[in-house]
Design a protein that fits this description.
Largest sheet: 7 strands, antiparallel
Shape: globular
Oligomer: single chain
Number of helices: 0
Structural class: mainly beta
Length: about 140
């Protein structure tokens, strides 16, 4: 089966702030996306943090799908993955509040969005080299 690769966010971020990537179009016919956060460099103190969120666009509503675990400035390289897929009976909550972000390390399984983006939030003075990509199958 052909794979669909999306670069959702790429760059080095430093200092406190929020950076939001552009919405990337997903592909019809994809059953699931494996989303990977790769932090190749984390330079700073234990109090410097990196939070990475992946949002999906469903109709006109932006929903936070993934909140990767927090990376500390002195934590070194890290790789995390999550799978975005349609819900099944075993994974579906009856009601989801889509107006809030997930807690760190959490995933919402609600389907394949029409578009995806990443939001990268940093605190402190650390520097982080980040790649978020999604591979659809």
């Amino acid at each position: 089966m052909a794979r669909h690769w999306l670069t959702v966010f790429r760059g080095t971020v430093s200092g406190a702030g929020t950076r939001t990537g552009q919405m990337q179009v997903t592909m019809d016919g994809v059953d699931a996306y494996t989303v990977t956060l790769s932090v190749s460099d984390a330079s700073g103190a234990a109090t410097d943090t990196l939070d990475v969120y992946v949002d999906g666009l469903f109709g006109g509503v932006v929903v936070n799908l993934i909140h990767f675990p927090v990376v500390l400035g002195n934590g070194g390289p890290k790789v995390f993955t999550a799978v975005v897929m349609p819900p099944s009976i075993a994974t579906t909550a009856n009601v989801l509040d889509v107006t809030t972000d997930n807690a760190a390390g959490q995933l919402r399984i609600i389907g394949i969005p029409g578009r995806m983006r990443a939001r990268v939030q940093t605190s402190g003075n650390g520097s982080f080299t980040v790649l978020v990509h999604a591979v659809g199958t």
